[in-house]
Amino acid sequence: MKSVSILYVILLAILSITISTAYWCNQQDDAYIFYVYADNIAHGKGYVFNDGERINATSSPIYTLLLAAIHRCTGISLPVIGHSIGGTGLFATVLFVFMTLSGIKRWIIPLLILANPLIYTAIVTGK
């Protein structure tokens, strides 16, 4: 039974990567807003969209700061970081569901989560 679980987790990882890759080139307006804020933070301009305008237009400040920190430390482009966070979060979610449920629900619900059309929004915006 343990080897079946390991294979299932590998399947969940493959599906998460496939879904994340399928939406790689799609961007939403929210993602652009996060990337501009994160870029400005990473380059020392502060938590602003336009230089000199102190208005917070992000809905997820911690996500914005995480993007900025990773971009500042690694130099990796913000869309790559955002999509990677989204894909990792998707896999973490289905893995958590798999580990906490029991019985047949344990095997079906993670796949239903991955089949949900709203996953598109989660991957594209990265949150």
Structural class: mainly alpha
Question: Which ranges are low-confidence, i.e. pLDDT below 50, for 5 or more consecutive residues?
Answer: none
The major pleated sheet works out as: none
Shape summary: elongated
What helical percentage do the residues reach? over 70%
Radius of gyration of CA atoms, rounded to a whole number: 17 Å
Distance between the termini: 34 Å
General description of the model:
This protein is an all-alpha fold and 127 residues long. 72% of the residues lie in helices and 0% in strands. It has six helices and no strands. It has helices at 2-22, 29-42, 61-74, 78-100, 103-115, 119-125. The two termini are 34 Å apart.
In short:
The protein has six helices and no strands. It is mostly helical and 127 residues long. The model has no long low-confidence stretch (mean pLDDT 87).
List the helices and strands and how they pair.
Layout: H1 2-22, H2 29-42, H3 61-74, H4 78-100, H5 103-115, H6 119-125
Helix pairs in contact: 1-4, 1-5, 2-3, 4-5, 4-6
List keywords for this structure.
single chain; mainly alpha; 6 helices; 127 residues
